[in-house]
Amino acid sequence: MAPHRLRGTLNIGLQLMITVGIFSANLVNYGAARIRGGWGWRLSLGLAAVPAGIITTGSLFLPDTPSSLISRGHHEQARRVLRRIRGTDDIEEEYGDLVAASEASGAVRRPWLDILRRRYRPQLAMAVLVPFFQQLTGINAIMFYAPVLFKTIGLGGDASLMSAVITGLVNIAATFVSIATVDRLGRRKLFFQGGCQMLLCQIVIGTLIGLEFGASWDGAIPKASAAAVVALICVYVAGFAWSWGPLGILVPSEIFPLEIRPAGQGVSVAVNMLGTFAVAQAFLPMLCRMRFGLFYFFGGWVLAMTLFVAAFLPETKGVPIEKMGVVWRTHWFWKRFVADEDGRAGHRDVEMDYRKADGIAVR
């Protein structure tokens, strides 16, 4: 539903609300930990019904998208929704693009099989690898187990919970940076900068903890070193919050053509949830066995995914979703998979279409 020039900014609003939810959960846990009698954890768990109720109520007021209405034959209603969300009556050109895309989508009867076709291999690769790499940044380990981690490095129980609250605030603030820059700087620059920032933090944190604890975890880390670790974790969280956090959701949501978008989104969400589950289950055993080496483990993955983005992810900012195919046809690697029907790349027509889409030249 978002206009293509603001798609990144509006989409990251989803990530902003996720960070607000994480921060709210940290506050609830911090307060519930102080309740005596053994029912504090029940209160923190039960309060999850509040956002569930808000989501349910909000769904009653959420309109269908123009693409969905067109695909089901409700053309006049689609026009009304499009006029409403664009704030103008001049919607015929965009409406025509949506109708054409919907007709192409309607010709596909087996999206879960068609997504495996060679021409969709670039999008499928991104739908799997971007959420896969996102989970291996180590962010879930940090956010899930921040109190455990901070307590392990020598902070008290209350101090560790407060440190988790601090990282939640950093997460929210840094997400605003992404909102302000994603449609100006583009996806690739934020991915690359955030990856480099997280990599550096992982290496320094692992080295600092290793020098203080060694391999045995014996003793307590000095307060100055503990404060340095908390500060570096905040820098790490900030790097994630304006790069791989929101963009891990944004990029898979905007790269698929209409005909396979539901299947593609399903694959992306499934990989994300599976990765979340795996990291949540594996983190504590890995922390016990790898100790400070755990940060090097995640740092190695951050290096791999940053190089992957630099080499294989095309820039998608400002490109209408209906015309997203041009970014794959002009990419140095993926163009071999998405040649035109006659087997030629068709670069000249694609280049003109790309310039028309966003007023930018293909490099």
TrEMBL record:
Membrane association type: Multi-pass membrane protein
Location, primary (coarse class): membrane
Molecular function terms, GO-annotated: monosaccharide transmembrane transporter activity; symporter activity
InterPro entries per UniProt: MFS_dom, MFS_STP/MST-like_plant, MFS_sugar_transport-like, MFS_trans_sf, STP/PLT_plant, Sugar/inositol_transpt, Sugar_transporter_CS
TM stretches of this protein: 12-33, 39-62, 124-148, 160-182, 194-215, 227-251, 263-287, 293-313
GO cellular component: membrane
Domain of life: Eukaryota
Pfam families noted in UniProt: Sugar_tr (PF00083)
Key words, A-Z: Membrane, Sugar transport, Symport, Transmembrane, Transmembrane helix, Transport
Entry-linked Gene3D superfamilies: MFS general substrate transporter like domains
Localisation: Membrane
PROSITE patterns registered for this protein in UniProt: MFS, SUGAR_TRANSPORT_1
All copies of domain Major facilitator superfamily (MFS) profile, residue ranges: 1-317
NCBIfam families named among the record's database cross-references: SP
PANTHER family named among the record's database cross-references: SOLUTE CARRIER FAMILY 2, FACILITATED GLUCOSE TRANSPORTER, SUGAR TRANSPORT PROTEIN MST2
Family: Belongs to the major facilitator superfamily. Sugar transporter (TC 2.A.1.1) family.
Name of the featured protein: Major facilitator superfamily (MFS) profile domain-containing protein
Source species: Panicum virgatum (Blackwell switchgrass)
